[in-house]
Structure formats: C-alpha cells, structure tokens
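User: Continuing from earlier, I have the next pair ready.

Assistant: Great, send them over.

User: Here they are, in order.

Assistant: Folding the first of the pair now:
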Amino acid sequence: MTETTSAQSPADLRSVIGGVPLQRADRPMANTNPSLTEEVLAHVSLADRGDFSSACRTAKQAQQEWARTPAPIRGQVIGNIADLATANKEALSRAVTRDIGKTLTEARGEVQEVIDTCEFFRSEGRRLYGHTVPSEMPDKQLFTFRDPLGVAAVITAGNFPVAVPSWYIVPALLTGNTVVWKPAEYSASCAWVLYEVFSRAGLPPGVLNIVYCEGEEAFAGLSDALDEGLVDKVGFTGSTTVGSRIGELCGRHLQTPCLELGGKNPMVVTEDADVELAAEGALFSGFGTAGQRCTSLGTAIVHESVYERFISLLTEATASAAVGDPTRDVLYGPMINERFAERYEGFLNWISDHHRVLGSTATGRITPARPREGFVGDPESGFFYHPVILDGVRPSDKVFTEETFGPIIGVTTYRHLEEAIELSNLPGYGLSSAVYTTDPRTAFTFRSGVGAGMVSVNNSTSGAEAHMPFGGNGRSGNGGRLSGTWVLDQFTRWRSMNWDYSGKLQKAQMDVAQIEADMSFRLE
C-alpha cells in the first residue's frame, strides 16, 4: 500500500480507495468503547454513496491485473496475512475487545478464526482445480476452469468484526477478485486494524478498499455501482430485513448475493441427554458475546422429563456467572453499542405475565438501582445488561418466533421428538441448531428434520471452524455457504472449454460413434 495509509492515526479513521485516504469529514463520528463509553477510540469520517461507487470503480480497474497474478502467488499474499495476524494477535484481540466489548478470551478466539481462515487458503491457490473431462468424440478434449467474478462488495456486521470479514475477503482475494469492504461503522477501529494487517501483506493498491459509511449510503452506492456494472458479487452479513433488500436489489441485476443473516437457533435437550453438559452449552451459546451472535441460542426445547433439572442447572450457572469488564474473567461484557442496547430494551418488552424470569437479580440495564450480584467492574461505565432466562415460553410468543439480539434465552418443553423438530423449525430461521442426546438415531433424525444449515450434537449452537461450511436457510440466508472449499463457489464461476484437434467439424450429439449390440440376447 502507499505510505499515505500508514501515516493515518488510529484516532482519525478515513476510507481508503486505491491506497489513498479520503478527506477528513467536518464532523466525524465518534467511535467509543461500549464498556467505557466516555473513551473515544477514534473519529471516523463517513463516506457517502458516491464514495462507495467510486471505490467499486477503482476495484474494477485493478481487478484484471490482480486476476493475472498467478493463483499460487495470490496464496502467498494470504499466507502473509496469516503470519501478520499471528504476530499481531494480541493487539488485534484487544482492539476487538475495546471496540465492541467482546471478552478478551472470545476476542482471541475470533482473531484465531482469521488466522485459521488464512492458513486454510494459504495453499488453496495451488488447488484451484478444474477438470479434464472425456469427450464423446475422438481427438477432442474437454476442460473446466474456475474464474474470478470480478469485484466483490462486502458488507459486514460488527458483532464478529474481524472473523466474518475474513470469511469473505480472504477467498475473494485468493480467487482473483478485488474487494470493496464496508465494515459496520460502530466497529470502525478494529476494522481499521484488520485492514492494516491485510494492506501490509503485499496487496496492490485498489485490490482491497475500505469504505466507512452508514448503511443507507452504502445501499445507495451499491445500487449505483450495480447499475454501472461495477460489482459482480455482493456478500452481506447482517439482519434479515436488510438482507432481503439486498437480495431484491441484486436480483434485478441477475446476481445472487451471499447472504448470512440472523438466527433463532434452537437447542433440543432429549430425555437421554447429559443434562449438565446441555446446561453448560446453553450458558455459553446463549450468553457468550452478550447473546449478540447470529448463532446465539434462541430457545432451549427441553423434554418434559428433564425440564426441571435443566432449568435448575441453567439458572444456577447463569446466576453465579461473572458479568462485566470484558478484559477480565467474565461470561460476557456490554452490548456492542447504544443502538444495540436500545433495541434490546425493546425485546425485553416482549416478556409477558406467563413467563417466569430467572437468571439474575433484575432485568434490563445493570445499574446501582438494579444491581447484578457479583458484577465485575463499574456497571455505570458501559452498556451492561442482566442475563434473562424466560421459563414458560410459548410458540405464539414473539420471544419464540423472532430473533432477540441480546442476553436472553427462552425455555419450553416437548414430549416427542417430532414435536421438538416442529418447534425448532417454527420461527422460519435456519442458521444453527443443537441437539443433546446419547442416541445416534435421535441425532440423525433431528439432523434430517431440522431446517438449519448447521447442526451440533452435544455441543453449543455457536462455534464455527474455518474448514466447515457456514450458512443458513430460510430467514437466515439464501443457501450460500462461507468457509472451507464451499465458499469458492461464491467467488468463482465455472468456465468450460472444448478443444477439437481432429481437423474437421465434429458436431456434438450428432457425429457420435454408434455401438452395435445384440440387446435381444438372453441366457437360456
């Protein structure tokens, strides 16, 4: 990258297009620490729709040269990113914790996901295999090749501000595409740190561009860029509502975006389950990252014979878990920012009289008036909220059917496995799911019946690995998959080639040799 990018102060963040930072805004947005809201991490100059489409134009101009770079060499660049991320792992992790309030332990795991993704694709440039295919005619060969699409516009949420972007950007770059990345503006600081790591790895200017802007400006700029023919693939991680708009926009241009959307992820606990293990899994998947994962546990669907045992164990574990300062040993820290905290307050309004509220000493924001026993740190310093377990959730409840992005778990009962599967599918999401059982038949019956793209057996609903397909169905996405070799289909298209060296025109399906056979033969 150019020297101008390295001269920027982390406290003064601007979009970078073609290696050149945009001008500072007159009134930049303050990017603050959600666990210490008075701490301003950066001043972010937000771009507009014109800047977004300009970045796409720059990426388009850089794409052919990048695609001509041999794939193994592009793989070396990805390997450089892996090595740089490894060398800077602690600094990256602390940047994530400061920016979105994720615990330092989880932040380190997220940065490791970036490293794992890069390590997986480091050598994939040597394995972008096509196929040689036998022809039905003599002196003719058939081939297939993976070709890059062109420019990828990647728009990501901030709850996984470095891992999820890497799931898109790394394979897109490896396969010869250029990228325009719009991170969430509320996680601007750690997005910048990730961009710094990528830009130092040997990427030419214009191959990776970062654009800070609000969602509506990005949407408008994306629409302009699609109209101009500048974008060939859209990757989006975020809400189902926005994903539907992006899907509609891309559909008008005959493009299929890769959409990774929300989830209402079920956990089924069967009568033969290890209930202690199930409660432990529910605690982590429901309250890790303060419930702000797309794979967070939505509803625990528990067999009536073990229900009381499960709810007792989960309540005890939740009530005794440390909450607070994310740099210390806690289950979770704050909400990502004020906007998420306000939205979560709305979800709490869905609690009804028929619900029994468990898990903490109060509900809502943790304050001196509504204290949390064992809170770590100063609750008034950030957006900290009580964990909530809702006993007695019904299928007609909004807390059962809708995503609740925050530290809240619903619990309900079932009698038969078919009922549990039906309840799991009822909300219409299809991202992640879990079943706790010691019976293989139950595990495979659940797998074949549940609509989720990912199924865990005796594990939490959260926990992706870099070499497994990640993605959902229904309200959780349009079937696209990230990670592993499966993501290659998102950023490449197959091209076929036939080579006839017979010296004459051979017409497929017409000039094919005819085989003589006696098909009336029968053994006596």
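And the other member of the pair:
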Amino acid sequence: MAAQGDYRLIGSLPKIGIRPVIDGRRGGVRESLEGQTMGMAKAVAELLTKNLRYPNGKPVECVIADTTIGGVAEAARTAEKFAREGVGVSITVTPCWCYGSETIDMDPYIPKAIWGFNGTERPGAVYLAAALAAHNQKGLPAFGIYGRDVQDAGDTTIPEDVKQKLLQFARAGLAVAIMRGKSYLAIGGVSMGIAGSIVDPDFFESYLGMRVEYVDMSELVRRIEEKIYDEEEYEKALAWVKQNCKEGRDPNPPARQASKERKDREWETVVKMTLIIRDLMVGNPKLAELGYLEEAEGHNAIAAGFQGQRQWTDHFPNGDFTEAILNSSFDWNGLREPFILATENDSLNAVAMLFGHLLTNTAQVFADVRTYWSPEAVERVTGRKLTGLASNGIIHLINSGSAALDGTGQQSIDGQPAIKPFWEITPEEVKKCLDAATWHPAIREYFRGGGFSVSFLTKGGMPVTMSRINIVKGLGPVLQIAEGYTVDLPEDIHYFLNERTNPTWPTTWFVPILTGKGPFKDVYSVMNNWGANHAAVSYGHIGAELITLASILRIPVCMHNVPEERIFRPSAWGAFGPVDSVDTDYRACQNLGPLYGRGM
C-alpha cells in the first residue's frame, strides 16, 4: 500500500466542524443534556474520520466546538475557533430543542447540515425544523438530516440512513471547501473552437470560488530549451518510460512514418512536457535550488488544461502522453494522487473531472462522447447482435489517447474491475495497467508534430458515472449526469466498431441506466441530449453525490438518472417544488444565485 502524500497545494486541507447545539436553559435542562449532545458530536466526528479521506490519502480531520452551543455567544466562540482551525464544512447536531436563529452557523460560504435526533424524550426534530426555517429565511441553505426511526434517549448509535446522509453531505461539502481559493490553469487558449476551452473566469470565481491563471504554450518551449526542469528527475522518468510504456504499431502510411531517431526525440520531448506542466500547476522546490525562484512557485492549480491543438501540435509532439500520465494514479515516482489535466484546455470538462475526483479520490477518464451504436447498426456492420447490458445499444467513449491509465479497469475490488484511490492500488495493479496500454505514434494527419497516444480497452462490468458541465447564455452553468456501466463486447464486434474510428486511442464502451422517459428513454436519447463533445467518467455510481455538490454551488442539474430516494439537497429546495423535479432545482438555484455571488 502506498504511503499517503503531503498536500501539494498552498493552504491547509479544510476540516469538518461539529457544532453540538443545546437548550440553553440552566438549572437542570441544559445540564441534563450535556452528555448526550456532546456524545452525538463525538460520534459524528468518529464516523467521518473513519470513513472519509482527503485526496492525498490522509484521514479527514474534524474539529468539535469547545462547549455545547446554547446561545449566540457560544455560537460566536465556535465560529472563531472554526476560522482559526481551518474549518470548511459544518455539521450541527442536537437531541433537543434549542434556540434556532441564535445558534445556527451564519457563514455564507461554509456548506452546512443539521442532524436533529429523532427521539420522543426531547424534541430534536423540532429544533431541526426551526433551525432550517431560519436558514431558509436568511438565504443560508442547510441540509436537514432526520432519522427515519425513533431512537431512545440513551441510544448513542448513528442510524444507517443518518450515516448515509452525513457521509454524502460531507463528501460534497469537502469538495466545495477544497476547491475554494485554488486555481484553474489554462495552458494556451481556445482549441479548435471548442466552447469549453473558452475559459470563463466569472464561472470559476462566482460558482467555485477559484481563480483562473493563464500561461501561453510558448512557456513550454522556453523551459525545454533553457532546461528549466529537474534534469535528474527527467533521466529517471525517461528510463521508466522506456521500461514501462510499450510502443505500439505506427498507424501512419509508410511515407509519413517518422524515423526511430525522430520518435526517440519525441519521447524525450513529451517526458519534459509532463514535468513542466506538473511544475506549472503545483510548483517544484527543486527549481528554486537550480536558481529558478519564480518558476518554482507554480500556480496553485487544482486543475488545468492544455490547448495543444492546433498551434502546438502542428509543430510539436502532442500532449497525449502528458495528459494520460498526469491524470493517472502513478508515474516514475510511484503511486500518487492524480492530477486533473483536461485535453484541449476544456475547462468545463476539467471541472467535471475535478468534481468526480474530489468525491471519490480516484483518477478520472477524459473522453469524447463519440458515437451511439444502435443494435441495428451494430448488426448491419458486424453481422452480430448485441446482448446483455449492451442489448439496447452502446455509446463509444474515445479520445486521442489522453485518458488516465486507471481507466483500463485493471485494478480490482472484490475480484471485480475497478478504479481505486492511489493508496489502495498495489504494485501488481500498476503493472497490469501499464501492460494493458500501448503507446502509438500519433497520426500525423491530426498531429503534424508527432507524439504518442495511448491505446487501451476498458474492462466491462464497472459501475461508472458520466458527467459534464455546460454553460448556457442567460442561464449559466448546468450539470449533466448519466450513471451506467462499462461493458465488454465480443472481440469481433469490438474490432469492427473500433477499426472504423481510431484503434490507437483508448476505448470505453458505455451503457447508461435507462428510466424509460425523457433523456433516459433509451441509449440514443442519452447521446442525443448530451450537451457537449466531451465527458468525464468517474468510477462508481456517484450521481447522488454530484447532485448534492451541485446544489451547494447552486448549479442546476439538467439531466440525470438518479433515483429520487438517493437525491439529497438543502431543505430550501422543498419550498420550490417536488424534490426530484428538474424545475425545482432550476428555481432554487436561480433564486439563491451562485455560492460566491459575484466572485471571491
């Protein structure tokens, strides 16, 4: 098992603040409740610390208020402690009636939830309702957590339904808090007119609390030519690549194939590009030792995008190797947290990848939503029928070799293919991922400067979630979600379909879960309603967590196939209509506006 890493970005990781709220009446009432109330806080802290980790692998830290909170003075002291301790998410717990608006968390930027104990001896649920009403009236949305079954006053356990909501909220809240104050680094400009690479700083500032940093691609040329990278690490990386990255067949016509000497130079260039883009994102103290103090700082980028096409790739090797390796959970230095790096500087797909990564701590797959194959079309070109999960049709997810190698599906959980957090991946699984991938000389029809694209076939049987952020003029950002599965196709069907596009790029065959209505009426409708050419693919069915996250940020979800019972949004949403309605979500988000208003 890999060691947990240090946090590579500037600033400390946000903690979860636990607020034990109590009936402030002295002389018997408060005193009788102190133990139970503080016990709830400690139980929640233990649950979260045991079950949640930061993206660098370390357990999530919780901070409990010094005392129970019976009034505004103690609420203020707790807020001061939380600010000092770096709390980014707050959870209030209580078994009893308390003074609603006097005890609530008033910080508008901190995601907040309240667990009101379901017991008959004291009215914890009454406080929950009163406090949520205060939150809603003040425009400070909070998530209400109320157990389905009545508990006895002395019961110190957390019911399973309460646990699920606490964990779902905490994952989403931490993702929001981790993004705040970080950067998106745009390396280059707009790639081939792709809308997602028209980077919108207002979106990042107002909705995510992030800033946008811009670096021209010529900076890579400068750093390569002036050797502004760690040459010792470069030699180590190049040796690792030669040993572990198998070169596949050259798909170019013989007249356009590069010489071995040219290909060797291109390998050297793409390895240097990888080091340099990583250094641009998070800095590198080694550069300071070499005298490059400014370059050593980096841009504190939690996500980035590389334009590549076409101004770079018409002359220099493409970014496929760099993107695939940085997005993976490992490289020549061993296992580590993936970097989020979008192909073609598609900042909106980078955000979807970032959401998935922060909710799961796993590597993300960047893909084109390339083709819908109907059962009839497959039978026409292959003479074979699709069966099993694929029987209603499939969506071909494929991009120019930039997908994380974790996407091979060569890792496993309980014997089934999976994508795991880096600290759970074994050396044997790393080798399997590398062995399942081949690196092919780039098709020079597309990439005149050469380079290498990774090719692999994702194993079927993985539960995955496809997501995407789009921006619509007059509306703002919207989120699309499609839960489904990767599928295996018979070898001959896969061969015929894959050869019709680019067989030297990574392929994932995806089947969404259908609901029989709307965008999920059939597989064709999912493809037909997808709002852009790219999607992020995350391991697991995390649609509910994405909906919770989007509600905190006030980004409406325009398309999803998540069952109603898994949807968890702030209680204010209930005032705008049915909880599972798309219209309700739009009205609530529009009414509240983006989390950070007009920006940080």
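Worth noting for the second one:
The domain at 183-592 is CATH 3.20.14.10 (L-fucose Isomerase; Chain A, domain 3). The radius of gyration is 25 Å.
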